[in-house]
Amino acid sequence: MSAATFIKTFLSHPGQVGAIVPSSRYLAAEMVHWIEWPKVQAVVEYGPGTGVFTRSILHCLPPEAKFFAIERSPELAAVVRDCCPQAKVFEDSVENVAELCRQQQIEQVDAVLCGLPWASFPEPLQDRCLSALMDVLRPGGQFVSFAYWQGMALPAAWRFRRKLDEYFSDVHRSATVWRNLPPAFVYRCRR
Length: 191
Ligand SMILES: C[S@@+](CC[C@H](N)C(=O)[O-])C[C@H]1O[C@@H](n2cnc3c(N)ncnc32)[C@H](O)[C@@H]1O
Fold this sequence. Notes:
By secondary structure, the chain is α/β, with parallel strands linked by helices. It has a single domain (2-190), classed as Rossmann fold (3-Layer(aba) Sandwich), CATH 3.40.50.150. Helices cover 40% and strands 23% of the residues. The protein is built from 8 helices and 7 strands. It has helices at residues 2-12, 14-17, 25-33, 52-60, 74-83, 97-103, 123-136, 155-167, and strands at residues 42-46, 66-71, 88-91, 109-114, 137-148, 170-173, 184-190. It has a 7-stranded mixed beta sheet with strand order 3-2-1-4-5-7-6, with helices on both faces. The longest helix is centred in the C-terminal third of the chain and has 14 residues, at 123-136. It is globular, with a radius of gyration of 15 Å. It binds S-adenosylmethionine (SAM). S-adenosylmethionine binds next to helix 2, helix 4 and strand 2.
């Protein structure tokens, strides 16, 4: 059912969803792997979709840490609330992360785990999302986001890659996650 909602949302908003099927649990494992979980006090997930990464985040999250997810599609936000009732999910754009943090009494975020389809975002939207992220991510904070190898054929994907170097002091790439459709890798960035 959740996969059907994902595909339906992709068909009505392809540029917003950017993938025809949800990520695999192997990609989810690669997303959470690098985060310094014992130090984390506040974490935000961008674009949870059907909650594949949300489940892994909740599994790693220290009991006292604050967490919420921001999902633009109301249908997918409902799917995440269903599969992960302990997660707070806001139906909003990540451009408004600072206001959502303020409402949650979070001053600074230690880590952001991101499922946004950057390669289908126009440049002004990439900039708005990254600059809003800088308003909340603490110095030294961690940001992870995935990309499909096939998506690297798009100029917007390379533009996003260059922007990561502008916004972060350190940017690395994981090994390829072959057990994902299509194969992907994770950007690991430190502010
Ligand atoms: C590629 S899907 C990833 C879903 C999930 N994380 C996964 O890996 O299966 C991208 C998700 O980001 C959401 N999204 C796109 N733009 C957004 C925005 N500006 N703010 C919040 N969510 C957004 C879409 O609705 C979609 O659920």
